[in-house]
Write a structure and sequence with these properties.
Layout: H1 3-14, E1 20-25, E2 28-33, H2 68-74, H3 76-82, E3 86-89, E4 94-97, E5 113-114, E6 119-125, E7 128-133, E8 138-143, E9 150-151, E10 156-162
Antiparallel strand pairs: 1-2, 3-10, 4-6, 4-9, 5-8, 6-7, 8-10
Helix pairs in contact: 2-3
């Protein structure tokens, strides 16, 4: 992309409410984030004070403790936390790619056992292709991000079980 064209786009965005622009033209891809997203608007409503003293709040009912096996089965997040799986997180803000190029197969597939130091994916950040390597061996259980999707710093990319 021409630098002058980029300057024109940035100048046009400065006077608008646009905070993010994604543009694709053939092989060229451009993602711009300008300023900060607008803060959510919070509306407060005044509530008149009661004429008399409020009634005392009822005490919450006592709940019997739940067995650990039922708690793990109750929610998938608790089940994931109770097993020995671990995640590989993005060290950068960028774009996630499972393969070195669109024509190549993914670097790792679900069920595959990886070694420490093996390349798992690529995160493109500021036109630099950063290879993300396994920090420990494991079997890939889940790919948590879709190929070509933007990722944030610390966002989980893969879930593994130790081998």
């Amino acid at each position: 992309m021409d630098v002058e064209k980029l300057k024109e786009i940035l100048a046009a965005l400065r006077g608008s409410d646009v905070t993010r622009l994604d543009w694709t033209n053939g092989q060229e891809r451009l993602t711009l984030r300008v300023g900060h997203p607008p803060a959510p608007v919070t509306t407060l409503h005044a509530v008149p004070a009661p004429a008399a003293a409020p009634a005392p709040l009822p005490t919450p009912p006592q709940v019997a403790p739940v067995a650990a096996s039922n708690a793990a089965a109750a929610s998938p997040a608790a089940a994931a936390a109770s097993d020995k799986s671990f995640t590989v997180n993005s060290p950068f803000v960028g774009t996630f790619y499972r393969a070195a190029s669109p024509d190549n197969p993914p670097l790792v597939d679900v069920g595959q056992v990886v070694k420490k130091g093996q390349v798992l994916c690529i995160v493109e950040a500021m036109k630099l292709m950063n290879e993300i390597e396994a920090e420990q061996p494991g079997r890939l259980l889940e790919v948590m991000i879709q190929n070509g999707s933007p990722v944030e710093y610390g966002e989980p990319l893969f879930r593994f079980e130790p081998v």
